[in-house]
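Fold this sequence, please.
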Amino acid sequence: MRLIAAFLRLIRWPNLFFIILTQSLFYFCVFKPMLKYPLPASFDVLFWILVTASVCIAAAGYIINDYFDFHIDAINKPQKVVIDKVIKRRWAIIWHWFLSGLGILLTAYISYKTNKFHILAANITCVLLLWFYSTTFKKKILWGNILISLLTAWVILVIYFFVGTGIGKWQSPDLALDVKRLYKFAILYAGFAFLLSVIREAVKDLEDLEGDIKYGCRTMPIVWGVPAAKVYTAIWLVVCVGMLTAILIYAGLSGWWVASLYIAIAILIPLFMILFALGKAGAPEAYHKISSMLKLVMLAGILSMLFFLILK
């Protein structure tokens, strides 16, 4: 049981649950209500295979990140270190390659069945980028943060490419799928995921400052200084608030009062609270609290997809 619990911590099971939830809600709450007639069950099976591929690739990315960050994590979060305490480094790298390979194989099958091989090329690129993020980009100013944020946005965009351009032989006029409308929602949620990820990665750099300094990382707080890093984070928070305010106004003008109220209470108010907390934060514990709050905001954003079942 101890080994299983350690492995689940290593692959960040709550984050994998976020991936499953995000892709499932976008598929069943945003995409499916747009169809005039349902797709065959075989298409749903392909969707779940794609979700499994996403989870495998993400889990492999978390493993390789911990594999290379073992010494830094021993300083920043010693209580969460798994590699060499419970799981040996040799087994960690084996699990990384196994999960990466499985994710690519599953994606290859999906691409073959839908004749959309750009999905396979993109997921292979994700595996490579996660490797280079852990070995190189994570220690570089901005590069690592932007890369992880793009990969976070891809969690939603891959579903768009699968359902919006991957219907293939199932596509017919009877489906009456408004691909342009689907694209707008994909960009909306992917953009929201990107912005929140940029903010959270910057906060994590502030939280992990001590260990990053010791091992020669060149993250934003180290190169620019903590005050500048906090200003950078605050600017992205303001951008996110501005985008959500525009969405709230549009939803209100469209008569979606419940959705507007939800955005205001569950997303906008917490973001203002995070902005205020960021100004006061100084200790790693404070930044960790902000990071956890950002996760809850992201969850609230994901759950907003449920409104499409009401507003369809």
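The mean pLDDT is 87. DSSP finds 14 helices and no strands in the chain.
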